[in-house]
Amino acid sequence: MGTNLEKTACDLLTGSGLKKTTGRIALLKLLLKAKKPLTQQEISNSLSGVNFNYVSIYRSLDAFLKAGIVHKVEAGDGNRRFAVCSCGSSSHCHPHFICRSCGMVECLRELKIPELRELKSGYVAEEQEIYIRGICANCSS
User: Fold this and answer.
1) How far apart, in whole angstroms, are the C-alpha atoms of residue 56 and residue 51?
2) Could you tell me if 74 and 68 are in contact, meaning their C-beta atoms sit under 8 angstroms apart?
3) CA-to-CA distance for 52 and 18, rounded, in angstroms?
4) Alpha carbons 58 and 133: distance in angstroms, whole number
């Protein structure tokens, strides 16, 4: 499985015209196998064995955002979270669930956000986000 993740990470970097480095590959592999969007602190903690400092992680995430490899999730708690984007755009193409009890954030990839066809004259949409807040299955049981 690790080999497939590494190949996928390398393909994403190559396809986006980004340099393949050990740190970037490790970062993408981590995001690819993550079950939820991760904060920069969670990423940094998980990559502690890799020679990839906090600033390098920040710069790589920024490059990934610009390339449409990842998207960011701002859950309202001051922490930006990052997840691999399955739709090839750094803007959200699916809603996110935020648990009010434990703070868990989950991408709801099976639900799609409808594309805005028309806005009022003079308005230009730059991004759209939908957050569903409630209680997750673990907290509600």
Assistant:
1) 10
2) no
3) 16
4) 27
**56 has a pLDDT exceeding 80:** yes
**Domain of 110, in residue numbers:** 2-140
Instruction: Give the number of other Cβ atoms within 10 Å of residue 58's Cβ.
Output: 13
Q: What is the CATH number of the domain that holds 8?
A: 1.10.10.10
Task: Find out whether 22 and 60 touch, Cβ atoms under 8 Å.
Answer: no
DSSP-derived letter for residue 115 is P
Whether the CB-CB separation of 113 and 94 falls below 8 Å is answered with yes
- Is the pLDDT higher at 118 or at 86? 118
* pTM assigned to the model: 0.75
Burial of 119 (0-12, 13-18, 19+ CB in 10 A): exposed
What residues have CB less than 8 Å from 61, skipping those under 6 apart?
A: 27, 40, 43, 70, 72, 82
Helix (H, G, I), strand (E, B) or coil at 57: helix
